[in-house]
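Shape matters. Shown next:

___
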Amino acid sequence: MGTVSAQFKLILLPLLSISMLLLPFLRATDFKYCDNKGNYVVKVDGVDISPNPVVRGQPATFTISASTGQAISGGKAVIDVSYFGIHIHKETHELCEETSCPIAVGNFVLSHNEVLPGFTPPGSYTLKMILSSKEIAQLTCISFNFKIGLGASGSSVSDS
C-alpha cells in the first residue's frame, strides 16, 4: 500500500505545482464602480480579458459577468478608453449586440470582442463602460485597467 501512496504523491505534486503556476493567469481583472455609493441595477461580478495582456492586431475578448434585479429589454453600452489617463477612443454599441436580449432577472454575461490595430502602442489602458437603457441612464458604470503587450501583430497592413 505504501507504493501506491508514494506514486500518488509523485503524480499529485507536479500537478499542484503546475496549477499554482497557472493561477495568476486564471484570476479575474480587478474593476471598480464609477460611483461606489451608486445603487446600480446591474451588479458586476467579474471581468475577464483574453488574452491578457492584449495582443495588438489579434482578437481580444472582454467578458463581464453580471446580475440584475430587473428585466432589461435593451439599451446601450458605451466604452471609453484612456491611455495613461488620456482619452483616446469612445464607441457605443447596442446592448443586445453584446449579450442576449431581453436580459432576464438573474445572472448574465456581456462579451465584447475587439481587434486593436497593429500600430496600437503597448502600455497601460483604462476602459470605462457605462450600460444604460431608455428608462435608466446608468444601469451600471465600471472601469478597469488592461495592458497591451509588446507582441507583434503577426499581420501586415496593406493598401488595397
Q: What stands out?
A: Residues 3-27, 153-160 have pLDDT under 50 and may be disordered. The chain has one domain: 27-148. The radius of gyration is 20 Å. The domain at 27-148 is CATH 2.60.40.770 (Immunoglobulin-like).
